[in-house]
Amino acid sequence: MKPLLRTLAVLAALALTTQTVRHAYVLWFEPRSSVLDKYDRPLKDEIETAGSLDELLHRYDVARKEVDRVKAERRATNPQAEFGAQQDSEPFASERALREAVTSWEGRAKDVRSLRFYWGIGFVFSVVGLVLYLRVNAWAGLTFMIIGFSEAVYWTSPTFFSGAATAEFDRLLVHKFVLSIVSIVALASAIYFLRIFRDERKGFVAAAG
User: What is the number of structural domains in the chain?
Assistant: First the structure.
């Protein structure tokens, strides 16, 4: 069983370490600006600096009312007026961008809740598996640990950016970064208690001597 444990431990460590590094890069080092930002910077700043969903929704409400006002004015003079071709002009463009930002925020908030729940379930499975491995049955314990660490690896895996950059997106990244580190510590603890690499280390010391 030791070869299997070692293989699984190396794979889990590889996945958790690489994605933790990526989370850190996206949070603190990845450029988020573009040379095209000067054309829509005021609106982009409003979206990125929004501190809550309510604040973002208030800005969307203002833009939506302006769109409704423009539509009403144009339909008063032309009841057959169509607006599909004008979606890239103001105020339609701002309304669309803010609507996408609100949708993105709600999606990220759901992702944070899912991450907390499923990672917690995975942690419980890992602890139960460790106890089973040490005191009841090794194979049963290994099964539970595989399930637990698989949940941790999957739910802390990188979130590829889509939608508007909001504070909630950064909050999701922080959660994934922190829980990835906790997962690495949990994995290291399991390796220590199960003595997965202890024989190799003793053999290396003996050979060196």
Answer: 1
